[in-house]
Design brief:
The complex is a heterodimer of chains A (204) and B (434). Chain A contains eight helices and four strands. With 204 residues, chain A is α+β, with helices and mostly antiparallel strands. Chain A has a four-stranded mixed sheet with strand order 2-1-3-4, with helices on one face. The chains are: A alpha+beta (204), B alpha/beta (434). At the A-B interface, helix 2, helix 4, helix 5 and helix 8 of A face helix 7, strand 3, strand 5, strand 9 and helix 13 of B.
């Protein structure tokens, strides 16, 4: 309890690139996927959330100003509107380039009473980073998040698309070691998974 | 009474996630039956069954189904609210992961009954396992002609799309969810585009039927077994019918989802979950973090039912039932709950946006040992000024747990303010953590 939770995420607002600097970096697959996603909705505006997930995949897990500008351009919306949406939701990484693995540790009610704070302290000591920060080697980002709704597995955390719990300090250590040896970015994989589940069999 | 499994009966069977396995247990018998019925007959059955929304508010489902326009002038949308975020609740997660076909069949039946064209399943961004299972189910249903054009040769067309959220508790509120689905910040609306109810003008300003996962999953059961049979479940309660899945967690030996019939005593739910661990029972939050906390004595006399729970000044809510043992520091729990709402407040209404932060600040001061005389009274004032003064129920939900904690455990708050520390030694509460 010595340290209390920060309210809100430490957001730095993304910056809009100048109009002449707009670059379209989506891969061919990305353009196809976006077209398929747009077809699910009666208008392009509704595709902003799926579009941002797609951009998060295409831009290596980080929604920079350039990524947001590309989504806005492709969906024919204003930059301000898309940025407003992107900064509202906590799973979009708008503050800075996240590490290869984003550790989302639940500290909400059930985890709170089941030892999440010990895990938090251990992670802080082990990784040398606090809520919202990324390790210098770009390996881990730590975030204390609200309820992950896996209270039967408290204390739990999410890394990429996967939930882990109930965790002990030992299993936490083992998980960190396993992640260290995982070359693939779970942040990008997560965004790719989110895009994939929204597309039908024939659309991929 | 024991568990009464309607929806979770086959949840442990891995084959239940496949179309063949689902059909082998009697799945997809309700849809052909429903497609042969008059649309109004299905809505009447839902009404006669007494099905109430399982998302938290407990509104009669038939109000929504019957409110949808009977003649088709424009597109009709269905939304499944799978943005489960209420702390303590994980029933929709299990339904999505283990029983995805129940949802697909239920939504298709509802789609037929209300002349729906497209159903969107809004899943919270974190639920990847559930989303993947549902994706497989939807793809299989399309391949088998159970979704898409001309379902089962009846000329009824219906599509289901998955829409992933991106991390916002607020989007579990129906108007905020629709804002989010339309590509906006997830903020609630007092009146959706131009009408008071989604059934008249909801998402994309078209008639919209919006329900929780569990509510839709009940539709095949009602069609298959009949409204009368469904209404006989929970007949001992005033107005709650059928079964309800409770997610039991906290200081219990066997946390998990338990499906029980309405009318079951709350105590039995605790026993199903293997009883309290690490000490005696102290308190319970029976329906997710938003509902008021109750004492162990109230747990002994509480009966699970929408009206019955109000006798112990609490609610069924979303079914996220958390039990706490005697070593739980209720002030810190109230603080953690307040932090949750402060973090998740969307910022639209001033009382909620500012009030939740004030509550956190006061509770933080108390928890850090700097509580002043009058702090508890100030906390009560701030909380009661949020209650009922915001567009959506998030504001009320932020105020109730704090108000209830002060009402039920006033001595703990007073002790904290006077002595600068807790009267509870909360260390032992961690005993038995797996």
């Amino acid at each position: 309890m010595s340290e209390l939770l920060q309210i809100g995420s430490p957001n730095q607002r993304p910056r809009q690139p100048r109009a002449e600097d707009l670059k379209l970096n989506f891969s061919e697959q990305g353009v196809k996927d976006l077209a398929a996603l747009v077809s699910h909705y009666p208008n392009k505006k509704a595709c902003i959330l799926p579009g941002l997930w797609l951009a998060q995949r295409e831009y290596g897990g980080f929604l920079s100003g350039e990524a947001i500008a590309e989504v806005a351009h492709r969906l024919e919306r204003s930059y301000a509107e898309v940025q407003g949406v992107a900064t509202f939701y906590s799973l979009y990484n708008v503050a800075h380039q996240p590490g290869r693995h984003k550790i989302e540790l639940c500290t909400c009610l059930c985890c709170h009473i089941n030892g999440a704070w010990n895990l938090r302290d251990r992670l802080v000591a082990k990784l040398g980073i606090r809520h919202g920060e990324t390790t210098a080697d770009g390996m881990f980002t730590l975030e204390e998040v609200e309820c992950l709704n896996a209270c039967d597995r408290a204390p739990c955390m999410q890394v990429g698309s996967d939930y882990y719990g109930p965790l002990t300090e030992e299993s936490l250590d083992a998980l960190i070691e396993k992640l260290r040896n995982t070359e693939e970015s779970t942040v990008v994989q997560y965004a790719a998974d989110v895009v994939k589940v929204q597309l039908r069999n024939g659309e991929i | 009474m024991a568990e009464y499994k309607l929806l979770l009966e086959h949840s442990h069977d891995p084959l239940f996630k496949t179309l063949a396995g689902y059909k082998a247990t009697g799945g997809y018998t309700a849809l052909p039956k429903a497609l042969g019925m008059e649309r109004s007959a299905i809505i009447d059955a839902v009404k006669a069954a007494g099905l109430r929304g399982r998302g938290g508010a407990g509104a009669p489902a038939a109000l929504k189904w019957g409110g949808m326009p009977k003649e088709k002038k424009t597109q009709h949308y269905l939304i499944c609210n799978a943005d489960e975020g209420e702390p303590g609740t994980f029933k929709d997660k299990e339904l999505l992961e283990n029983c995805p076909f129940e949802l697909v069949e239920g939504m298709t039946i509802a789609g037929y009954a209300v002349l729906g064209d497209v159903g969107y399943v809004y899943i919270r961004g974190e639920y990847m396992d559930g989303a993947k299972a549902l994706r497989n189910a939807i793809d299989e249903a399309y391949a088998a002609g159970l979704l898409g054009k001309n379902i089962l040769g009846t000329g009824f067309d219906f599509d289901i799309q998955i829409h992933m959220g991106a991390g916002s508790y607020e989007c579990g509120e129906e108007t905020a969810l629709m804002s989010s689905l339309m590509g906006e910040r997830g903020m609630p609306r007092l009146k959706f585009p131009s009408a008071p109810f989604p059934v008249i003008s909801g998402v994309f300003e078209k008639p919209t039927l919006i329900h929780n996962v569990e509510s839709y999953c009940n539709a095949p059961v009602i069609v298959n077994k009949g409204a009368e049979w469904f209404a006989s479940l929970g007949a001992t309660t005033k107005n709650s019918r059928g079964t309800k899945i409770f997610s039991v967690s906290g200081h219990v030996n066997k946390p998990g989802n338990y499906e029980i019939e309405f009318g079951t005593p709350l105590r039995e739910l605790l026993e199903l979950a293997g009883g309290v661990r690490g000490g005696k029972l102290k308190a319970c939050i029976p329906g997710g973090s938003s509902v008021p906390v109750i004492t162990a004595e109230d747990v002994d006399r509480a009966i699970i039912g929408y009206e019955e729970m109000s006798e112990v000044k609490s609610m069924v809510g979303s079914g996220g039932c958390m039990f706490f043992n005697e070593h739980t520091d209720m002030v810190k729990l109230a603080w953690r709950s307040a932090v949750f709402y402060a973090n998740e407040s969307c910022g639209k209404c001033t009382p909620c946006r500012e009030g939740t932060r004030w509550m956190v600040q006061i509770l933080e001061r108390i928890c850090k040992g700097g509580g002043r005389p009058g702090d508890v009274e100030m906390l009560r004032q701030v909380a009661s000024q949020i209650d009922g003064r915001s567009f959506c129920p998030l504001g009320d939900a932020a105020a109730w747990p704090v108000l209830a904690a002060i009402r039920v455990f006033p001595q703990e708050f007073e002790y904290y303010c006077q002595h600068g520390k807790s009267m509870i030694d909360s260390k032992p509460s961690l005993v038995g953590v797996p």
